[in-house]
Amino acid sequence: MSCCYVLNCSGLGTSQIQDFCSSYDSWSECTGKVQEQEQLSTPMVWIGLYVAAASLVCSLAMAADAFLGFRNRKLWFPCRFFTHNATSLTLLAVATKLPLDLSTSMPSKTDQLAKLCSAVFMCTMMGSFMPSLGTMDNKDLLVNVTALGILVVTMVVNVIIQLYTGAISEPVYIEYPVVMALMFILLVTIIFSALTVPVCKAILELKYSEMHKIASNEEEPEQNGKFNVDKLKADVVKYWMMAETGSSQFLMANSATCAASGAICLIATLTLVEVETRAYLWGERHPTGNPEYPFSDYSYATTVILAIQSIGVLVGTIPPALRWFTASTFEFSKRGNNIYREIFKVETYWVQRLVDWKESPLAFKIGGLKCRKFLQGTKSLILNMGIRVQKFIVGASKLLQLVPMFFITLVLSCCYYCKWLERKVLQKVSASSINTDLELSRYALKLEGDEELPRGILIDISNNANRLIQRSKEKQPKKLMDLLRKSSCFTGVAEFHSNKILSLHSEEPHSCWSLSLVRLTSIAVALPKIDNNAVNQLLCSVSEGLFYVNIIEKSLDTCGDLGKIRNALDVVWVEVQLYRQWLGKDVRKMSLEGKSSKETLQQLADIAKNSVMEYRKELNCSLEENPLHWPVKVIAANSMYRISETLLPNCQGSDSKTGEKLFEQLSVVIADIIGACLTNLPRVISMKCYCGAIEKREKSIRLAARLLGQTEDVLKILQQCQLPSLDSDRVAHIGKSSTSTKQMNPLDSDQVALVDESSASTLRFPLDLNSSDGKNTPSCGSGELLIAVEQEA
């Protein structure tokens, strides 16, 4: 009985195949086995290319983080694209398949180098995403670190098996154990660094709250309803400093353990460079290293993997290595010559979590007193060992920071000498700049034992805020500003209100700023004989305004009652802006039918009324349910009915003149409503500056900076239209609907002042808005703009 062997014939010549096949009964039987082997090995090439694709994605993500770090001058390189999560761990497992493969023979030099490169690539990725540990909560930390530990331990065990069986050979036999040891040290460092994250977050939260109270107490109250744009910008930079220095990624990236991971990654990269240099420059010239060793079943895919992962290692090592040098520079600038005396000092927060676990009782009770005493003692013994290991890791990590000190000393000496020459040439230093840096340093958050941040880091952080504000200025809503210049300081709203028009329901449903804008814009689009360019200009202006109106509504709608309405209004606005439709009716077609403005308004009112009545008929009720639960189209229809009926008495005289006049009046009212809403922008920006959740803090302050940059000129326009004698709590007081009827008259801008509902003489403007907080801040809901009229004595 003959035995059949599966032959890996890739790279073998015909004579070699013939020699192998001489043991078979016939040449046809041998060639059949060869063809079968080729068919079985074909998918391996595609698997290798899949590994190369995963490696490319990881490399691009690390390169993007490195690019953003250099661009924003954040040399601690926060993780944005390549973070420690389920996605990155999955890509990591795919990209490191070669060292985990125990079944495929990979004898060639390229195969062996590709295996080693994958292991180094994993070390690089572990060091690259280490700062992202600070963004996780306790559950995510446990899950992700455990998953990473399983992957690393699996790789280490597989490599040990391959070393023992001889599957790993020259030219990487010596370097592989070194890389595996570095990988295991990285894993232990990540595990013990993760233990400090909850404690450090709690400390930063406390310091952030304390600094927020100090900053709030230092703020000067606004006078006469005026807001200072420069002061608002200073507040944004101030809170930007607090958010950046209080960021968990900033803390983790500048920690001793993260700096040590950069040194480990650099050593692993240098090991790979040494092996590849030795293999390709001083090794065999044959493509596979030895003619007797063919390519593996992965074929040319191993070459692609080796090339991509080698580039990924070089690019991905840059952020961890620079974190190492940056942290060393940071420590040197903080402590100076005292660094050698304090290098082995371990701060309390490093071991606080382990100490708390040690002192806490067992969560369960098993057996008798002796058993519980034994378990408690065992737990204390294990945690004492963990505390010692943690202190050793921190001490060793700080010791690694001394390595670049010689180079840092030379570089800093050159920098100080250049600055000394610059002062000699300029003969002066900007006092305002120094004062600004000293002022901002007060808002830099620090942990126990940390000194003041270096002046260069403070300057970079504040410059990042100013650069974002300046870049946002390039995206200012110019068409919206043109519309706001038509505003009559809210007085135009009074011309379009009539208490004689009753709602289709006894209880007015909730509404919001955006609904008022959408319904008025729809009416303006439907008016006949209006220039198409003017309509498009209005639509673009309102679209730009709705972007900021929605931000204000979401920020000030603390109860969240109007979220459903806002989401549905987005759909309604798309119909109005793109298709010129309202409630399924083509409003632009109405304007082209040759009807008069009065007929168009009457048609809109009828459509709105019919929509409400059909809804009542379908439910066989009288709309006694909560108006908040109405469909948005029913709310919009009810609102459209009232405003259309209110505008009908204004449609008199020549139709063309009436249409143009009404369009201009509607444009003024729309500008008034947007302007009244945007007066809340300073408050919203201030709200975005402060964010309680540490994970969302940086995103929130960036939004505040972008809002300030985009709306700086808008705020200046609103300052010119600001109503006189307003305090910060009465920027645009929107009270709840009043059952009393007030007399309506147009007002001059110098006769207007916002007051409470209890004022004796008030006017009601139908803005359909509501106050969302206790400070009379307008945001949403059905309500009225209350305006006091000065009475003559």
TrEMBL record:
Q: Which domain of life is it from?
A: Eukaryota
Q: Does the keyword Protease apply?
A: no
Q: Please list every transmembrane segment annotated in the UniProt record, as residue ranges.
A: 47-70, 112-129, 141-164, 176-204, 250-273, 300-325, 392-412
Residue ranges that the Swiss-Prot or TrEMBL entry lists as coiled coil:
none
Keywords of this entry: Membrane, Transmembrane, Transmembrane helix
Q: In the UniProt record, does the keyword Membrane occur?
A: yes
Q: What's the protein here called?
A: Uncharacterized protein
